[in-house]
Amino acid sequence: MSRVDYLRLVLAIRRQLLRRGRVIMAIDGRCGSGKTTLAAKLQKQLHCSVFHMDDFFLRPEQRTEERFAAPGENVDHERFLEEVLLPLRSAQAVTYRPFSCARQQLGEPVTTEPSCLTIVEGAYACHPDLWAYYDLRVFLTVDPETQMSRIEARSGPEKAQQFRDRWIPFEEKYFKAFDVQARCDMCFSG
């Protein structure tokens, strides 16, 4: 993301904050596009809360062929809505249990107090069941070569192959089915 794009985004966030007082923003986009990095940078500069869709991976018992066959269903958006977005909309504290990929189960509860700006980052953040809860929606994209080199650098060649064969096709199916990139308020190259 260029410096100019970053400043445009910060300006859009500040406008929303002036207009609404409290803002919930989604950063969706392709894996390896910089969603987590952007959220961390905004958190440092704007002192906001950040929630990661990666904490809402499906539990093993939820991973059915039927669920994986539908676009956007390989994240527990139902639990995210119930545990995070509904309390945030009511300006209440959020308590949720992040999913641990290492243990394949939910971890210990985490509580986050509401803040003026909350960022939800990760693929599937703009799922249709979550869309209406956001005040600002941002999409990050990345070219396939850069995407794969970033994934391999952070996860290694074996995991990168899993991303190429499984997770990226799931994401692309979701982006296409719901026209996520075109519907977002802002789109940037990560």
Please provide a written account of the structure.
- The protein has 7 helices and 9 strands.
- With 190 residues, it is an alpha/beta fold.
- It has a single domain, classed as Rossmann fold (3-Layer(aba) Sandwich), CATH 3.40.50.
- It has a 5-stranded parallel sheet, with helices on both faces.
- The model has no long low-confidence stretch (mean pLDDT 96).
Helix content: 40-55%
Just give the CATH class: Alpha Beta
Number of separate strands: 9
In round numbers, the mean pLDDT is 96
Rg on CA atoms, Å:
16 Å
Query: Structurally, how many domains make up the residues?
Result: 1
Cα-to-Cα separation, first versus last residue: 5 Å
Report the total helices: 7
CATH architecture: 3-Layer(aba) Sandwich
CATH topology: Rossmann fold
Q: How would you briefly describe this protein structure?
A:
The chain is of the alpha/beta class. 45% of the residues lie in helices and 19% in strands. The chain has 7 helices and 9 strands.
